[in-house]
């Protein structure tokens, strides 16, 4: 191959490479994506009411108090067989469905054996916007025949709802 042929082949190759570059850029498209994620769900399980719904004659249910996450009541029982029942209402005011995870009711140590308590079951699930109620009954044991030396009992309850799967 002589020098003129080599130069011609070189020029042709440069023209082909240039043409391919122009053709590629003419058929290439750049796509751009922008996205944003935002959490809009709201977790809001709360106590919305507590009230005495049954009170033995002569007893005092006091004025139950509550906040979104706690409730307090002070029952005064007079004689064996007396009972007071409180109804506690819980609402899922959020947008996320909930499942009951834990229910613990326990007596603090050194409380009166003459005071008994019972509760009804809670709903196992609480969907957004729903509410449920349960009761707590405190009773002066009807089988007590002597005045107890310890006259009070503190009961602590913990109820925990978690996000449903």
Task: Characterize the structure shown.
This protein is mostly beta strands and 165 residues long. It has a single domain, classed as Immunoglobulin-like (Sandwich), CATH 2.60.40. The chain contains one helix and nine strands. The protein has a four-stranded antiparallel β-sheet, with no helix packed on it. A three-stranded antiparallel β-sheet has the order 7-5-9, with no helix packed on it. It starts with a helix and ends with a strand.
List strands and helices in order, with pairings.
Elements: H1 3-26, E1 45-55, E2 65-66, E3 71-72, E4 83-92, E5 98-107, E6 115-119, E7 125-126, E8 131-140, E9 155-163
Antiparallel strand pairs: 1-4, 2-3, 4-8, 5-7, 5-9, 6-8
Second-tier CATH architecture: Sandwich
Q: How large, in whole angstroms, is the Cα Rg?
A: 37 Å
The description of the largest β-sheet is: 4 strands, antiparallel
Order of neighbouring strands in the sheet with most strands: 1-4-8-6
N-to-C SSE series?
Answer: HEEEEEEEEE
Q: Outline the low-pLDDT stretches.
A: none
Provide mean pLDDT, rounded.
90
């Amino acid at each position: 191959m002589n020098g003129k042929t080599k130069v011609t082949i070189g020029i042709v190759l440069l023209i082909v490479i240039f043409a391919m570059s122009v053709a590629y850029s003419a058929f290439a498209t750049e796509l751009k994506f922008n996205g944003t994620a935002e959490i809009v769900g709201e977790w809001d399980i709360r106590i919305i009411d507590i009230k005495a719904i049954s009170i033995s004659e002569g007893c005092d249910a006091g004025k139950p108090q509550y906040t979104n996450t706690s409730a307090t009541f002070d029952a005064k029982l007079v004689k064996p067989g007396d009972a007071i029942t409180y109804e506690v209402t819980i609402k899922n005011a959020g947008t996320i469905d909930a499942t009951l995870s834990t229910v613990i009711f326990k007596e603090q140590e050194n409380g009166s054996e003459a005071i008994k308590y019972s509760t009804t079951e809670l709903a196992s699930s609480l969907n957004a916007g729903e509410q449920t109620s349960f009761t707590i009954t405190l009773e002066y044991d009807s089988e007590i025949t002597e005045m107890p030396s310890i006259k009070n009992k503190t009961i602590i309850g913990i109820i925990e709802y978690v996000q449903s799967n």
